[in-house]
Amino acid sequence: MLPGPPPAAARALRTAVFVEEQGVPAELEHDAADLAADHAVVWDEAGEALATARLLDPAAIPDLDLGPAPVGPVPDGPVANRFGESVGVIGRVAVRPDARGRGLARAVTIALERRAAERGLTGIRLHAQAAVAGLYLGLGYETFGPPDRTAGIDHVWMRRSILPGLRPVRDDDGPAVQRLIGAVWAEYPGCVLDVDGEEPWMRAPATAYTGDLDPARYRGRMWVVEDRAVEDEDAGRPGVLAASVAVRETAPGRVELKSLYVAASARRRGLGQALVFLVEREARRRDAQVVELWSDTRFSDAHRLYERLGYRGAGRTRDLHDLSNTTEIHFTKDLLSE
């Protein structure tokens, strides 16, 4: 994975495929967005590019074309000021003619999907040539919006979610949030969930994170991930919660990662890691340089996740003097050092 301008071999491959083979004008093929893109390249033994593609992030390219505004539910995750604030765009997928049929277009696309998750993006869009749309359908993409013709070639917009079921928490999620967190705590001897006495925010979790508008609340955001394969009979709607995570501002330049919980049935899918990346993206959006968190000493699996993602123990602990006799470890991560 290479940030910034594409290597000369990748640029030459794109020129050969798009400009010379397909007749795309060179001024359309080579644009300024390359400078802010992540580039995936497959090399041969001689150092020549066999395949390449790029990922564009709207955080780096504010006027990035994300395609037509979706009609109906958007499967890309959280949406705020702009309909695709957490959506990246994969494009410029090119494969050398003698290397086609070997799955290399699929390989560079999947590599960029992983990079998108690392950036905290929750969805992917791509403006696919209609002739190869089947490749992306096979990778789980769906078409949206009308087809169009660009540079004399038929195209269609496509999308897929990196975090299916992700959405901002609602106040009516309170019972489901309590069940999720209560089930996780029950895995650890001595952990007791007392909602009214110690965690009243769970009664109205969305309201608890409205500090951007109400200074008496947490200044931040909270998300949940629905497990859409399970029926939540108590709530009367599909989708029990598979996971949750939140972020709140704690001081200028600092945010706290909070309430990262993944249901036992949803683990080993990379969900916890993806939610940490989502928090880090939100931290950067809020101009934070440091993400901190406090984690129960009993949550050793979570500690291993945090350490693998670059969080380090800050040498501090605190006792909460609660019903669970909790002692927490302080972790921090410097976003500027990445």
TrEMBL record:
<dbReference type="Pfam" id="PF00583">
    <property type="entry name" value="Acetyltransf_1"/>
</dbReference>
<keyword id="KW-0012">Acyltransferase</keyword>
<dbReference type="InterPro" id="IPR050832">
    <property type="entry name" value="Bact_Acetyltransf"/>
</dbReference>
<dbReference type="GO" id="GO:0016747">
    <property type="term" value="F:acyltransferase activity, transferring groups other than amino-acyl groups"/>
</dbReference>
<dbReference type="InterPro" id="IPR016181">
    <property type="entry name" value="Acyl_CoA_acyltransferase"/>
</dbReference>
<dbReference type="Pfam" id="PF13673">
    <property type="entry name" value="Acetyltransf_10"/>
</dbReference>
<protein>
    <submittedName>
        <fullName>GCN5-related N-acetyltransferase</fullName>
    </submittedName>
</protein>
<feature type="domain" description="N-acetyltransferase">
    <location>
        <begin position="22"/>
        <end position="163"/>
    </location>
</feature>
<feature type="domain" description="N-acetyltransferase">
    <location>
        <begin position="164"/>
        <end position="328"/>
    </location>
</feature>
<keyword id="KW-0808">Transferase</keyword>
<dbReference type="InterPro" id="IPR000182">
    <property type="entry name" value="GNAT_dom"/>
</dbReference>
